Amino acid sequence: MKTLKYASGIIIAVFALVAIFGFMILSKADDKEVKLNYTIKQIWELPKELREVSGIAWLEDGKIASVQDEDGIIFIYDLETEKITEQIDFAEGGDYEGIAINNNDAYILRSDGTLFEVLNYLDNRKVTNSFKTGFSSKNNIETLEIDKEHQNLIVAPKDRDNKDNFKGLYRIAINSKKMEAIPMVKIDMNDKVFNNENKKAYKNFNPSDMAIHPQTGEYYVLDGKNPKLVILDKAGTIIKIYKLDKNDFAQPEGITFSPNGILYISNEAGDNEANIIEIELK
């Protein structure tokens, strides 16, 4: 009888430990999901030229470089004067989605996977070159960011990667313009934090742009279809997800940081005007 009681006690203890650890794991996953936990600090309504605003990139003196998904033009927008101060033609019309700035050079990504390099983009003698990334229109690639420390560009497919169970962040060396075949980070489309809202896993998360935090080095990846902001550490582990209210972020397409860590998100025009929003996360 004592043996039976002892065995029963062990079984109960094991189940208790399983329940505790299961709760801890579930709580850890739940901690990643934060709904509407942000403050909008300021909104800039954009002029009609930027109704289809896509990627944005921080410049000095409170200016932002941007592209839109119709014209091969870099628009320089001044946050202080709330006006476009310069328009720079770099290519014919097309679905341009991402932009990154590396000193005097600009890089623009078209949704069919073509990368444009505009050397000395602010100069009348600028030179435009184009390169293939390895992605195509079926991937619908929009994300473009620069890792200035390692002189790499980072891209990610919006719709489908090479496999449907992940979306990868891929490096492109600026000096060679060659994309690495193996992603530096794989975002698991079956991760519980995405709630598996769709029957097809690849539809759970659709990256529209990303930015590297200038102080922490973390990756802030934006989803434009189901507005949310996914934060990854340098190893690619999901730290937190911020749900973005569609009333505030109708179609978030671009994201950038100022050097002191102020976060800006651009939205295409929907029912409201296209805009850039300064947002503070909590």
From TrEMBL:
Keywords: Cell membrane, Membrane, Transmembrane, Transmembrane helix. It comes from Gillisia mitskevichiae. Belongs to the YjiK family. The keyword ATP-binding does not apply. One of its GO terms (cellular component) is plasma membrane. InterPro entries: 6-blade_b-propeller_TolB-like (IPR011042), WD40/YVTN_repeat-like_dom_sf (IPR015943), YjiK/CarP (IPR009722). The chain crosses the membrane at residues 6-26. Gene3D superfamilies: TolB, C-terminal domain, YVTN repeat-like/Quinoprotein amine dehydrogenase. It is found in: Cell membrane. Its main location: membrane. The keyword Endoplasmic reticulum does not apply. Pfam families: SdiA-regulated. It comes from the Bacteria. This is SdiA-regulated protein.
